[in-house]
Amino acid sequence: MGEQHNHLLWAKRSRVPGDPAYHPLLCHLLDVALVARVMWDDVLSPAVRRYLAAAFGLSETDAGPWIAFLTGLHDLGKASPAFQLTWTAAHSLLRDAGFPLPQRPLDPRATPHGSVTAATLPEILVAEFQLDNQLARRLGTVIGGHHGIFPRAHDLCDMPTVAVGRGPWNTARAALVRELASHIGVPRDAVPRGIDNPAAMTLAGLVSVADWIGSDDLIFPFAAADAAAASSLDFRNYYRQAEGQAAQAMARLAWLKSRAGAEPRAFSDLFPHITPNALQEAVIELARDLPHPSLVIVEAPMGEGKTEAALFLADHMNAVGGNRGTYVAMPTQATSNQMFGRVRDYLIPRFDTETVNLQLLHGHAALNAEFAALRQRTDALLSPREDDADQDPEIASGVVAAEWFTYRKRGLLSPFGVGTIDQALLAVLQTRHVFVRLFGLAGKTVVIDEVHAYDTYMSTLLERLLEWLAALGSPVILLSATLPDARRATLARAYAAGLDTPSLEPRTDPSAVYPRVTWVTRNGINSRHVPASARTTRSVGIGWVDGRLPETPEEPFPLGKQLEAALEPGGCAVVVCNTVGRAQAVYQALKRYFQGVADDGEPELDLLHARFLVDERQHREQRALRRFGKPGGVVTTEEGTIQVRRPKRAVLIATQIVEQSLDLDFDLMVTDLAPADLVLQRAGRLHRHRRDARPRGLEVPRLWICRPEHITEGVPVFDHGTTAVYDAHALLRSWLVLRDRDAIAIPDEIPDLIEAVYDDRPCPATEPPTVRAAWEETRQRYEELAEKDAAEAAVRWIKRPGAGGFIWQMTANARAEDAPDFHQAHQALTRLTPPSVSVVCLFDVDGRLALDPAGREVIDLSEPPSLNLTRRLLARSVTLSDRRVVPELLTTDPPTAWRESALLRHQRLILLDSSGRASVGKYALRLDPELGLVVE
């Protein structure tokens, strides 16, 4: 039995009762193989093709058909009783054709077809192509894991023979392999000789992605109306037809190789309105001779143009190194939203004659106005066309967000993307389809901003990510305003380890002081000093203020009086609080001092934090940007673009949202005491932009820091909220290094301040015994916690690129993504934060659920929501991490109708009464129009 009965084996079938239409297995194997071949020829970067071919020990010419062939074999295990008999109509056809069938029903879940592929393919590869036996088994495991988890050795041994099939089933599988090899044109005189972990994970990702595309019925419709039609199929004609369909699919995904991106561009071409400063000139010079791949760490004060330097360098690395695309990783959703617009503005002129796919990757990306505008442009792009030559020229070129890539796990596949660092860190956590994320990052330049913002757990994961990116041939650019020496060295060594040069040590250059650029290549780790520009060289005055809140509304608020006096001539100030609760309280306390409406028509006093509903938070972010943003700039909203207009006098109360990458500029800043590097980061929003004049008294940047509420025998006592957010040892050392200062010279004093907080020095002997005791106690707790956090990362991450052992160990302990109701031990955590839960707030109006308190827009929870309604529900969501209410909320289930929605399935529902209140256990939630969600 061989090729003559291959048409009877099916891969996909009609779900319409009584409809005999199906897609023969050989057709599906061809579909996926051809998608992989088009990806090899027209999607994968030259860098990825080079390293995959080298890993296989083949030329690129021979590697292409081999990879397409191996990818097509992913579903070979469907040629088994366990799979074929899940369709009742196939029973009699297979029996009549001589396939032995089991006497008892089979449970297909006990014998997954991917595992059957992994178990049966190696023997065929050895017999047909004389592959090394160990390599064949490794390839079988990689290909068989296309549904997200590599089958384990004992899984393959435990499969019942009756479910796998013997005799004619073995013959049929071997025949399918031969026929697929014949159609694809696999060179038998040049066969793979090996495959390392990076190449194996990249191949696994390619197989999954090709299978997703090749399984789309709209692209590859069923080839057989019934078994009789299948028996007369001409597979060579089908091959030619499927080849064209695969090419069209890639074109409509805006995934084809760029012509414009193949040549490097000058900095002046990419940013014609910017005259390069010393930092950007240094990056331009470095780019000329930088080997591929490499890591570049840029450390410079806020406002030095690090973003433009990074985008130029990424563009150059892509063109020269044969990479394709860039992912920009940011610390938060808010910073991702703003960076998205900047990357879009760079891409539009850079690829003005081509369609470029740009994605925004975070949980609420669908609600971003700029991203939504790009999504709207893909409707025509992804629609089937009779004649591609008649495409709308407005669609045929430009920047779009292709719909296919917006599904979970696919975002990193897009050539260009902006999102949170979490999306990249998931690429080194044991999760289902972890290799798809690695495949998405392979051969792509990765820019990671605000590197100083990550704690021990995230930093440990970042080290493993850097090691994998180096092994995958992906250049990396790290940006930071404030990076401790030890941290820089650790990150550099992690990337060097991925280049298989772990013994590299930094070449000590005493002149390479901050600001600096550091680069890591196979030749070594080097640094050079870059002079700061005159615009960022300044002295920031330090003042200590009383930030204690009044105990009653009638009591005066000392900080309010000081701010009122300082802003009497006018000016824009920001008060940065360490917690949402404190921000809400400070806002209420300041209302008596700033009650009016500013000259821009907005309130003089405003509030911005993460506990507003999503739509309100975005509205407030946009309001902050258009009030305190760059002169002459514009802000994109759902209503269009709005010009930046600075009020004469205004005060913004905010949390750490304004600390990272939001391009805001204030005349005066008040901040709660935080670790010194973050205080400096916040100060980067002081006098950030050039202005013709500042208000009287605020001509020079002034930073007011709130004193600790209590100081006992020289030891500061920080409030519980601050110590819940920041490490007590870093807070103590920051207080000691800042307490006697009346100014900070930027950038000259930044390194000394950072090292004074983060290096391993002992407590100064000049401090009293009480302070020395507090130093030792908090240091010990810090070290214990750091060790614990690093251990937590080690139980979740994937093995090193060069680790030995079985490839299935990469996914053996896969943890759940985006599953807040799972215990943290079973979650793929990118951050070790207290448990949180996202909730949708609706109103209960006379027993009916509504989006608004008046009950005008009623919601039916019994019906699955449309995409439009899903977005509107998400707009009324907020993430809570308050320990008083999160455990209670996690005991409730999402509405049944939401469980099939990827965006809503983990959302809990809170029903508010007409006054905006709800009870959660012993606590009350109140949705306040001014304060956001308040826990009482």
From TrEMBL:
GO MF annotations in UniProt: ATP binding; hydrolase activity; metal ion binding; nuclease activity; RNA binding; RNA helicase activity
InterPro entries: Cas3-like_dom, Cas3_C, CRISPR-assoc_Cas3_HD, CRISPR-assoc_Cas3_HD_sf, DEAD_box_RNA_helicases, Helicase_ATP-bd, Helicase_Cas3_CRISPR-ass_core, P-loop_NTPase
Keywords carried by this UniProt record: Antiviral defense, ATP-binding, Helicase, Hydrolase, Metal-binding, Nuclease, Nucleotide-binding
Keyword Secreted included in the entry's annotation: no
GO biological process: defense response to virus
Domain annotation HD Cas3-type: ranges: 18-213
Superkingdom assignment: Bacteria
Similarity comment text for this entry: In the central section; belongs to the CRISPR-associated helicase Cas3 family. In the N-terminal section; belongs to the CRISPR-associated nuclease Cas3-HD family.
PANTHER family to which the protein is assigned, alphabetical: CRISPR-ASSOCIATED ENDONUCLEASE_HELICASE CAS3 (PTHR47963:SF9), DEAD-BOX ATP-DEPENDENT RNA HELICASE 47, MITOCHONDRIAL (PTHR47963)
Protein's name according to its UniProt entry: CRISPR-associated helicase Cas3
